[in-house]
Structures are given as C-alpha cells and as structure tokens.
Write a structure and sequence with these properties.
By secondary structure, the protein is α+β, with helices and mostly antiparallel strands. The protein has six helices and eight strands, in the order E-E-H-H-H-E-E-E-H-E-H-E-E-H.
Length: 179
C-alpha cells in the first residue's frame, strides 16, 4: 500500500493520495456511477488527473485522502476549501461503485469529521449533494448534518438541470451527538 496510514478505522483506513493512485482516480472519475452523483459531466484524462493531484491534493486549502480497505483503494474523502479565519470546510467524498453500500463511506465520514473538529479546530463542516444522490443525502443526515438550503438547477447532468442540497454540521452539534 503506497503511503502511510493517516487515520485508522475499524474496517478502513485513510491515507495520503500518492502519484501511484492517479490511474485508479482517473478510472473512477470517468465511471458514470461516480461522475454523475458528484456532478462531473466531462471526461478526465490522466494529465487532468495529475493537475488535480498537484493543485488540489497537494494544495494547502484541502485535506484529500484515499479510503483504503485491506490495502485496496475504494474511494476518496476530503475537507476542501478550508477557511481558517471562519474555521469551516466543505466535505466531499465518493466510494467506487463496487464498494458502495458496505459502510466504508460512513466510516470515512466519521473519521474525517473527528479529524476536522478535533485536530483542525473547525467550527463548521458543510457539504453539497445533488438531488439524484439520495444515498449521500442519507449518509450526511445519519452523520448529524442538517439540510440548510437548495440551489435550484445548479448543475447540468445527463441532460437535466439538478438541484444541489446544502448541508451543515456545527462542532457543538457533532459533540452533542457523540456524547
């Protein structure tokens, strides 16, 4: 497994994304079962994936890690656009189609929330989910997020405009449910 373990869960671990992961990431980003729910509508070549790796994964505004099960990458999870002044970030994640509905996303979200609130000192973590992604909406709600609003017709996916639902979780709300 490339890279050391960053966060350890019961069934999965989170580790840094390495250059060796780029082909896996590109293949998943071009899988319609992944790109539709996350709102991508254009194919991604290896050079574009490399640019994402260099600009986003290696950037200072994000914490982007690989979800790994038994040394096999199964998805990614991130705290994006960290705003240190306001102490907030946007949660983003996906799990490869062959590994969905097995609890890996739920465990990864729990791990990254704990990291964000306890280690980074965030006050608020928010997430955006497209209307066609009901499983992700359920995951966020089970983790304690509250739906705060809807951006209507914000993305054009599969020939249709899609609404985006915005969710938020405050540190004190997260601590109340944990205790």
């Amino acid at each position: 497994m490339p890279g050391p373990v960053f966060l350890e869960g019961e069934r999965s671990t989170l580790r840094p994304i390495e250059e060796e992961d780029l082909e896996f990431l590109q293949a998943q980003a071009n899988d319609p079962r992944i790109w539709r729910p996350i709102g991508r509508s254009r194919p991604l070549n290896l050079e574009q994936e490399r640019e994402f790796f260099e600009d986003v994964v290696c950037g200072d505004e994000n914490v982007v890690v690989m979800i790994v099960v038994e040394s096999e990458p199964v998805g990614t999870i991130a705290l994006n656009w960290i705003d240190w002044e306001v102490q907030k970030a946007e949660l983003g994640y996906w799990v490869a189609s062959d590994h969905q509905r097995q609890g890996y996303g739920t465990e990864a979200v729990e791990q990254i929330l704990e990291y964000g609130f306890d280690q980074l000192g965030l006050h608020r973590i928010e997430a955006r989910v497209f209307e066609l992604n009901e499983p992700s909406r359920r995951l966020l709600e089970s983790a304690g997020f509250t739906q705060e609003g809807v951006h209507r017709d914000v993305e054009f996916i599969d020939g249709q405009y899609q609404d985006a639902y915005w969710y938020g979780l405050l540190e004190d709300e997260w601590r109340e449910q944990d205790g």
